[in-house]
Amino acid sequence: EKTEPAEEKGKSDLTAEERNRLLKSYLTRLSEGEELESVRKDFVSHFKDVEASEIMKAEQELIRGGAPITEVQKLCDVHSALFHGNTREEKIANAENAARVAMQKERAYTACLQIKGHPLALFKRENDELKRQLDLARKQLEEGKDIGEELKKLRDLSIHYAKKGDLLYPHLQVKYAIVGPSKVMWTVDDEIRDEMASLCADQNHGDSWKDRAAKVLERADEMIFKEENILFPICAVNFTEEEWKQLYQDEKDYAVCLGVKPEVWEEAEKEDPSLHTGEKEVPADEVVLGGGHLTMEQLNAMLNTIPMELTFVDADDINRFFNESEGPKFFKRPSMAVDREVYSCHPPKIEPIVREIIEGFKSGKVSEVPVWMEKGGHAVLVRYMAVRDKEGKYIGTLEAVQDMDFAREHFKKG
């Protein structure tokens, strides 16, 4: 039989000390494996008439006293629902629902962490390393040591934050109408990142600098808690497996964060990422590309807007495409040149050079050949680039001709 401190006292007459003792007893029961639902009933019984601010204050004191924040968060999920609803029954019903949702989130998050290579597993590993480095920097700061170099290393957290900002926040907001994280956490991410950049740029590491450093370390530590107890569980319970596999592929575009290298998610590797075009069905008149889908009008207009003269030659050395950028061209491309062999478009003295470049691409010896020249009084950069498929097989050559006068003028001004 469970015995709670001050259980005979009036519900709203609990002192701060008694509230802390009660909460500690609940945390002990949770840590010993008791079901959250059972603890919730006693929690509701003792705290239903206590102001939310008082409960939150007591919980914060427990955390400062060394209580496991993951266990305190379980109580946070329950008590937050107590203060919505007009009647006692509504409040208790909300608390019961909050307990169920909290358990669902925890189970979903835990399940994701068990999958090697899962995006949330990588986020968690990055947080573990971030926590280690934050603790080290904080210890050195307390010992009076300069932590300038440690802060420079910690700036890698901007990669972690960028992934959240690109992959998690927008998807939660647009697909699932969950706007809280994107409106609050995203802003805090930017503030932490910007403050670290400012501290690293400041050469005066006096008392003011140290105070700012201590505060930003604390904020970064708090963000780890918010991610692992709020953001990641919300994502885990909402995102589909297909969405996680898409995120896994998208994560490959980011640099390694804090030295934590991504692991392979075998199941996700079996799928072709080029097949993912979002949830909506793509109209029949649109071209499906690896990064999305466009109408022919959009695709043509986009290619013609690029400030370069583009030519694509296929693996059989046949001209397949020229874009139609506006204005005079350095190298004229008549429409009749399409479907002709590329060598026929060059004068005899240039043809051997073109053949050598393309042969180098085909053999794999080179992947790009830049050529700088003056043409008609303009600085011009011509880049010949090997085009390869995802297996590395040569499928053609792209020529990009660009007027570089804008760059020359820019650096003259500087």
Features:
elongated; 56% helix; 3 domains; 414 residues; Four Helix Bundle (Hemerythrin (Met), subunit A); two-stranded antiparallel ribbon; 5-stranded antiparallel sheet; Beta-Lactamase; disordered N terminus
How does this structure look, described?
With 414 residues, the protein is an alpha+beta fold. The protein folds into 3 domains: 101 residues; 154 residues, nmb1532 protein domain like (Four Helix Bundle (Hemerythrin (Met), subunit A)); 107 residues, PAS domain (Beta-Lactamase, 2-Layer Sandwich), CATH 3.30.450. The protein contains 15 helices and 7 strands. The strands form 2 sheets. It has a 5-stranded antiparallel beta sheet with strand order 4-3-7-6-5, sandwiched between helices. The N and C termini lie far apart (79 Å).
Strand order in the sheet with the most strands: 4-3-7-6-5
CATH topology of the largest domain: Four Helix Bundle (Hemerythrin (Met), subunit A)
Per the principal axes of the C-alpha atoms, what is the gross shape? Answer: elongated
Task: Calculate the terminal CA-CA distance, rounded to whole Å.
Answer: 79 Å
Secondary-structure blueprint:
Blueprint: H1 16-31, H2 36-47, H3 52-64, H4 69-79, H5 88-113, H6 119-142, H7 148-154, H8 157-176, H9 180-201, H10 207-238, H11 241-251, H12 266-269, E1 286-289, E2 292-295, H13 296-305, E3 309-314, E4 319-322, H14 351-363, E5 368-375, E6 378-388, E7 394-403, H15 405-413
Antiparallel strand pairs: 1-2, 3-4, 3-7, 5-6, 6-7
Helix pairs in contact: 1-2, 1-3, 2-4, 2-5, 3-4, 4-5, 5-10, 6-10, 7-9, 8-9, 9-10
